[in-house]
Write a structure and sequence with these properties.
single chain, about 400 residues, alpha+beta, Aminopeptidase, Alpha-Beta Plaits, 2 domains, 4-stranded antiparallel sheet, elongated, Peptidase_M20, zinc, M20/M25/M40 family metallo-hydrolase
């Protein structure tokens, strides 16, 4: 097969150079549409009905402000039966506050790597998938649809919208950065917020008050015990291999108003990992019960609120023919194709929830996603593109 690596890198750099922080992705989708058209591929830029999606009972949640939602599909008609979905997001997280050596939107190529926000997560892989479609034009294949989506980082609304529009697929592949492994199990993730009340008093008379911070300390210990319990005897064999399959983290704390005043309020926010096979509401209820037991002290209770993205867990049977097909394709490129589970949420679960077998396979360097000086190896982007071509050619549909 022929992947024009130089052209792929130029296109990936062009896409990285268009800022597309979650909530403002249209310009990047328009640029990707131009790149697709230049490759002779059929593309469709469309606006979703955001208001209708927000009232849908299965709405996957949002965190970033937005007043519009756009999607782009690139379709390669089939020469034999079957339909395969490729899926990748063009939204990225903020560049942060630390300076970048080459700039977050540089799209610079240096030392065999593509640099910039989204290089690995996941504008680079989206362009690799686009060039895989171009390489498939002269080959016999099922129909292939590349979904380029917004809003993955804050819940998956872009992919949810695309699947509401069209879900008639036999299989799906998402080139998320998986470390050149075939991922067929992903944890879920929920974000939560709570407010703990105390009783204010002068610091010199602190025994007459009740510190909200002291109350939270008991909650923090209880959360740590809950995390240990959830990660004991993990059921899914691929998730069991991870050092911490289902993390529970409190990432923000805000408490107190004055250094000599017993704090009467503490607000905390965090993220709850959800096991493969678990129900989201069950996971919410279990954490609330942990909190209730920790604060059983006669003072006001704390009710968790659950805002932002609701990432359900997802899994595809490791013995499914599509998993085996992708494994064979990756092994043909790299010499090995281990199966894996991952502790993070992704849009894969939106396919598996509809009964569409889905896997993720992509480059290394996920630790650089969301980090300063994000980059990806160009040769691994090419490996991903060739793996997609092989998998589509061998698709058992």
């Amino acid at each position: 097969m022929t992947i024009d690596v130089d052209a792929m890198v130029r296109d990936a750099a062009a896409l990285v150079s268009v800022p597309s922080v979650t909530g403002d992705e249209r310009a990047a989708l328009e640029r990707l549409g131009e790149l697709a058209a230049a490759l002779g591929l059929e593309c469709d830029l469309h606006r979703h009905d955001l208001a209708a999606l927000r009232t849908h009972p299965d709405h996957p949640g949002e965190e970033a402000p937005r007043d519009e939602l756009w999607g782009l599909t690139v379709t390669l008609p089939g020469t034999r039966p079957g339909r395969i979905a490729l899926n990748g997001h063009v939204d990225v997280v903020s560049p942060g506050t630390e300076p970048w050596r080459l700039g977050p939107w540089s799209g610079a190529v240096e030392g065999g790597r593509l640099h910039g926000r989204g290089a690995v997560d996941m504008k680079g892989p989206v362009v690799a998938a686009l060039h895989a479609l171009a390489a498939l034009k002269d080959q016999e294949r099922p129909e292939v649809v590349l979904m380029a989506v917004p809003s993955e980082e804050d819940g998956g609304l872009g992919t949810f919208a695309e699947l509401e529009r069209d879900a008639t697929f036999d299989a799906a592949l998402l080139p998320e950065p998986t470390g050149l492994r075939v991922v067929c199990a992903q944890a879920g993730a929920l974000t939560f917020k709570g407010e703990i009340r105390g009783v204010a008093a002068h610091a010199a008379e602190r025994l007459s008050g009740h510190s909200a911070i002291d109350r939270y300390v008991k909650v923090h210990a209880a959360f740590a015990a809950h995390e240990r319990a959830v990660n004991t005897d993990v059921a899914h064999p691929l998730m069991r291999e991870l050092p911490l399959p289902y993390p529970l983290l409190v990432g923000q704390l805000h408490a107190g108003e004055w250094s000599s005043m017993v704090p009467d309020r503490l607000v905390f926010e965090g993220r709850l990992g959800v096991p493969v096979g678990a129900d989201l509401q069950q996971a919410r209820d279990e954490l609330q019960a942990v909190l209730d037991r920790a604060l059983d002290d006669g003072l006001p209770p704390c009710r968790l609120t659950w805002e932002g993205g609701a990432f359900a867990p997802g899994t595809t049977d490791p013995d499914h023919p599509w998993v085996k097909t992708v494994q064979e394709a990756l092994a043909a490129e790299t010499g090995s194709a281990p199966l894996a589970g991952v502790p993070w949420g992704a849009d894969m679960r939106l396919f598996t929830a509809r009964g569409i077998p889905a896997v993720m396979v992509g480059t290394r360097d996920i630790e650089l996603a969301h980090a300063v000086d994000e980059s990806v190896a160009i040769d691994e982007l090419a490996t991903v593109a060739r793996t997609i071509v092989r998998a589509v050619n061998r698709a058992p549909v």
